[in-house]
Design brief:
The structure is a single chain. This protein is α+β, with helices and mostly antiparallel strands. It has 2 domains: about 80 residues, no CATH class; about 55 residues, no CATH class. It has 5 helices and 6 strands. The protein has a two-stranded antiparallel sheet with strand order 1-4. A two-stranded antiparallel ribbon has the order 2-3. A hairpin with a 2-residue loop joins strand 5 and strand 6. Helix 1 runs antiparallel to helix 5. The radius of gyration is 17 Å and the shape is globular.
């Protein structure tokens, strides 16, 4: 089984072209991503703001944020949104990192698939291993599941 991880400090993330490709080629994975309005309707201070590449969403965020006095033109955005979905690094569950479409896109695009702070790598693990991803400050590795007691 192949799994995509980030091999440098900063954290997992995909480039905008890779995210768009993933959204277009794997609608079922794309649908698992949280909706943007969930982040703007439940909190007075949104944790995530859309990337400027989604004009419709920028307009929504500007309208919402300006009502709260939080959004200013020129703000830097640390989250990418596309077609109304949040596609940031923290929303990728372990099993999604092994999605064949994601793996293929990273293989085909190489470094062009790397997000702003990412250096993506595909690691191969045996199919029968129960695994999870561990990380320190965004640098990741795949570990086999085991029992722990405290």
């Amino acid at each position: 089984m192949k799994v995509v991880i980030c091999t440098r400090h900063g954290g997992f993330g995909l480039s905008i072209p890779a995210l768009k490709r993933l959204a277009d080629e794997s609608p079922e994975l794309f649908e698992k991503m949280p909706k943007v309005e969930d982040y703007f309707s439940d909190n007075d201070i949104p944790m995530y703001r859309p990337f400027a590449d989604d004009p419709e969403l920028m307009e929504y965020a500007a309208s919402y944020g300006s009502q709260k006095g939080q959004f200013r033109e020129g703000d830097l955005f640390h989250t990418v949104s596309y077609k109304g979905r949040i596609l940031s690094d923290c929303h990728w569950r372990y099993e999604e990192r092994a999605e064949p479409t994601l793996v293929r896109i990273v293989e085909e695009m190489g470094e062009a698939a790397d997000g702003r702070f990412a250096a993506l790598k595909i690691v191969e693990i045996p199919d029968d291993v129960q695994w999870h991803i561990e990380e320190y400050d965004g640098k990741e590795w795949v570990s086999e599941n085991h029992e722990t007691w405290a």
